[in-house]
Amino acid sequence: MQLLAMFVKDVRRTEQKYRNSQDIIMRIEPSAIGFDIDGVVADTTEAFIRILNKKYGISGITAADIVEFDVCQCLNIEPEIVEGTFAALLTDPVAAEMRPLPGAVSVLQRLGRQAPLTFITARPLRRPIADWLSHVLGRGTFQNSNLIAMGDHDGKARHIRKAGLNYFVDDRYETCVELETKEDITPLVFTQPWNKGRHQLQSVSSWLEIAQLCHL
User: Fold this and answer.
1) What domain range is 84 assigned to?
2) DSSP conformation letters of 73-99
């Protein structure tokens, strides 16, 4: 019985040590994490569906229907309409009334009080999305932020490293798979219908989870 008690005690000590080590590993400093915008900060899907309905009279589409990053592969809509809809979101997301995802603003504002925020987007135009971020986050939060508009989905690693980041949140799983190959970058896949079941990387499904990882 004494040996059994000692064994149980050792197991519990090991479990506690493991939990503590996990807590240390998963603590992300606000200065070490960066973010994609569309599908992570911005609810681009809601705006896309709303514009399709309002401008083109296309209804019946839900967020759950968009199961491919390239929407032309999963929606029976003419490419010209898709391009026109995304053009509105690219050139003037404020006028398009693009909304932030639930919890994004409050978490980013709290992170911004501890360290400058960094956003790295595949959008080709910087000014429109800068205006949108300033609009939703507030000028005080955004003015100290770092915003990079790459114009390409691939090659984010060099910008992440240049910004001194170790973690990056993105909804495009292919981007995260690419980042996973870099020893000094840990990608976090922001769960969306188009990335579910397509990877085995660490993921987050809400801004509450991001806040918890950063111990806010």
Assistant:
1) 45-91
2) GTS---HHHHHHHHHHHHH-TTTTT--
- Please give the tally of structural domains in the chain: 2
pLDDT tens digits for range 104-155: 999 999 999 999 999 999 999 999 999 999 999 999 999 999 999 999 999 9
Instruction: Report the DSSP pairing between strands 167-170 and 33-35.
Output: parallel
CATH of the domain at 142: 3.40.50.1000
pTM more than 0.90: no
Compute the distance between CA of residue 111 and CA of residue 195 in angstroms, rounded to an integer: 26
Bridge partners (DSSP) listed for residue 169: 35, 188
The whole-angstrom separation of Cα 75 and Cα 180 is: 30
Give the whole-angstrom CA distance, residue 57 versus residue 65: 17
Q: Is 151 left (phi over 0), alpha (psi -120 to 50) or beta?
A: left
Both tokens assigned to 33: 């994490």
Is residue 175 a contact partner of residue 154, using CB atoms and an 8 Å limit?
yes
Nearest to 173 by CA among 33, 68, 96: 68
In the chain, % helix, strand, coil (3-state, to 5) comes to: 50, 10, 40
